[in-house]
Structure prediction request, 191 residues.
Amino acid sequence: MKIGILAVQGAFIEHKNMLNRLGIESFEIRQKQDINREMDGLILPGGESTTMGKLLHDLDLYEPISNLINSGLPVFGTCAGLLLLAKKISNDERIYFASIPIIARRNAYGRQLGSFNANAQFDSVGEIPMVFIRAPYIESVYDNAEALAQIDGKIVAAKYNNQLVTAFHPELTDNTAVHEYFIDMIKNKNS
Ligand code: GLN
Prediction:
């Protein structure tokens, strides 16, 4: 199994380290030719969604990645990556891949709670540590998208077919559960 990690901006190294720990091969996607490599899954990291969105277009990566997602490639977006995948962002007119039926709210925790840690249940996996950095949350999921985790009544993770999103950064903790969850999504698709 091989996973591509979008590496134009943001926290991509941490995802690579996490996959290394799990014995999963990965490579960085920096330019158009990287998209031609064989991959079983794709990670869109945290960072700044507006910057990543612009770079995706400038580097001609937007269309090929959009096609891969729409053709069913398993994709995992964390934080800004969640915003890149959301069909709607309630407080921002920009949309990017618009592939997962969720309504996200950008920088949703305001200034005081800009960054914080929490522990919460993640699907049937159990309680896991969650790190939030100027994070979005998910106001609602629709069209059979599934909420996987909530904190104080706000959805912070969701799944829809081949797509997984978290408002938090599992790659900044020691806990590998969410990456394993994504790897299972890839395995289940291929089986
Ligand atoms: N605030 C960033 C954005 O709007 C996301 C922050 C992050 O990825 N840690 O894109």
The helical segments are 13-21, 49-58, 62-70, 80-85, 177-190.
